[in-house]
Each structure stands twice: as C-alpha cells, then as structure tokens.
Design a protein that fits this description.
Blueprint: E1 3-4, E2 13-20, E3 23-30, E4 33-38, E5 42-48, H1 58-63, E6 75-79, H2 85-93, E7 98-102, H3 106-115, E8 124-127, H4 131-137, E9 144-149, E10 152-153, E11 156-157, H5 164-173, E12 174-184, H6 189-203, E13 207-210, E14 217-222, H7 229-232, H8 235-245, H9 249-260, H10 263-270
Parallel strand pairs: 6-7, 6-9, 7-8, 9-12
Antiparallel strand pairs: 1-5, 2-3, 3-4, 4-5, 10-11, 12-14, 13-14
Length: 272
C-alpha cells in the first residue's frame, strides 16, 4: 500500500479491470511501469516491466533498510504479499533465503502470479490466511531473521495486523537479533501514532523513516537487534550494499539519521 494518486494525466493502458469484494481493482501499464490500484486511486504496488525484481516504490526501499542490519537473512516472513514486490525482490537478491508469504486475498495473489511475475518454487511458501491467525497457529517459535509487515485492505492498514497483539507474536517468532520492518500509511494521524506506540511498547523505541514526499512511515524494530547499524554504516559499506541491491542506501541512512539522532548525537558525529 502506498498512496492516493491522481491518474488523470497518466499516459496509461488498462491491462485488467474488475470488481472484487465490492472494490474496483485495476492493473495499469504506464510506460515501463505496471501498477495495481484499488478503488480507482489507491496505489497498491508497482513493478518495472524491464526489471521486475527491482523495487519501484520508495516506501519499499525504506522497508529494506533492514538489510543495513543483516544483509543475509536466511528466513523471512512477509505479512501482506499483495502484488509481490517485496517477495520478488527477496527471492531474486537472496538466493538462499527461505520466504513465507501471508495474504488473505487469494484472488490478488492469483493476479500477482498472472501479471506481476510472483515466483513459484520451493524457497517460497504462500499461505492464504490472515497474518495474525498464521502467527497464532505456529506450534513453536519460527526464528525469522526478518519480518516485513505491509498488510493493507480497501480501508487502509489491516486492523488484525497493526496492533500490539500481532506485534507481540512477531517478536515471539523473531530470532534473537531479528528485525521487523513495518509500513505505516493512513490519513488518520491518531491511528499512525497508536500503531507506532504499540510497536514501541513491544520492541522498545523503533527507528522511524518517513518516506520523502509520501505519507508512509516505515518503523524498524527488533529483538535485541543493533538498529543503529542503519546509521553507523560507512560510505564503502553503503556503496557496496547499494550496488548489490539496487537501492540508494546512503540516502536511506541519511533519512534515518535526520529523524532518529538527537541533536547531541549529530554534533558528536561532526567532531568524531
């Protein structure tokens, strides 16, 4: 889920259109970009047709700031697969990683397979169920290195996912040192604050990354993870990871420092 977009000036071609669960669903090509829209103007996902395994939307780049903490996660959970941007990226760039994807909209997953190159092989397991229900039913801690939360419906952030009970379960199923990356987007500032407070209550103070020129805020938290690695990586490391993942990590690290370092910490960096 990303943001509302005025499409009147877009040079667009409708690839697919239908009503599903009383919601207008459209897949639209605009040059090299294919996008999934809900309700006529809510952009859910985008993909480059020439480079489908790259991340297109800026909020997804911020969600992968987690790779500055651990760039070789072995097991990842994606809550809210949608059109599959995060899954495609992980599957392509982390060839030994096992991925569990959760989504309770099987029809959207079918569209992702048909129009958005969602992969199918033994490294990816998809579950057609609510994310909270999935976590509750796991018989033992799963030991995920990374959990990505990007679960939206036609009304916004999925109510069953964006609250303390679900975050507690996520923490339970993270391994020690594991990271959770949560995409927040809402026109309701009070709701945004409530979700961030629930995250802080469960994990301790998260890192917050407001996505430039968008309404999204990405929260990074973890289970005994060194979150400050996002801000401590040196230029050579940022350049290496940027080249590897086709993400401008220098820019993301700068956003993180701007919004998470205290004034004293900023000054200390100038003189260190």
């Amino acid at each position: 889920m990303n943001f509302r977009q005025n499409r009147r000036t877009m040079d667009r071609r409708i690839v697919h259109r239908e009503h599903w669960n009383n919601l207008l669903v459209e897949i639209i090509d605009n040059g090299d970009t294919r996008s999934l829209f809900f309700g006529g103007d809510v952009l859910q996902s985008s993909m480059s047709l020439s480079h489908p395994n790259r991340l297109t939307l800026s909020y997804t780049h911020c969600m992968m700031a987690s790779l500055l903490i651990n760039d070789h996660p072995e097991r990842v959970l994606v809550i809210g697969v949608g059109a599959g941007s995060l899954v495609r990226f992980l599957h392509s760039h982390l060839p030994t990683c096992r991925i569990d994807g959760i989504d309770n909209a099987p029809h959207i997953i079918k569209l992702a397979h048909g129009y958005f190159s969602l992969p199918e092989d033994e490294r990816l397991t998809l579950f057609d169920r609510d994310g909270l229900d999935y976590l509750q039913q796991l018989p033992e801690p799963r030991g995920y290195d990374l959990i990505l939360v990007d679960a939206f419906d036609g009304a916004g952030m999925a109510a069953s996912i964006y609250h303390r009970a679900c975050f507690d379960l996520c923490r339970h199923h993270l391994r020690r040192g594991g990271v959770i990356s949560i995409n927040l987007w809402s026109g309701d500032g009070v709701k945004m604050d409530e979700v961030q407070n629930d995250c802080a209550d469960c994990f301790g103070p998260p890192l917050t990354l407001p996505v430039p020129n968008r309404g999204n805020v990405v929260c990074l938290a973890g289970r005994q993870a060194d979150l400050n690695l996002v801000m401590r990586r040196n230029r050579a490391e940022l350049d290496r990871l940027s080249d590897r993942f086709a993400i401008d990590f220098s820019r993301i690290a700068g956003i993180c420092r701007k919004h998470n370092l205290t004034r004293w910490q900023r000054l200390s960096r100038l003189f260190s």
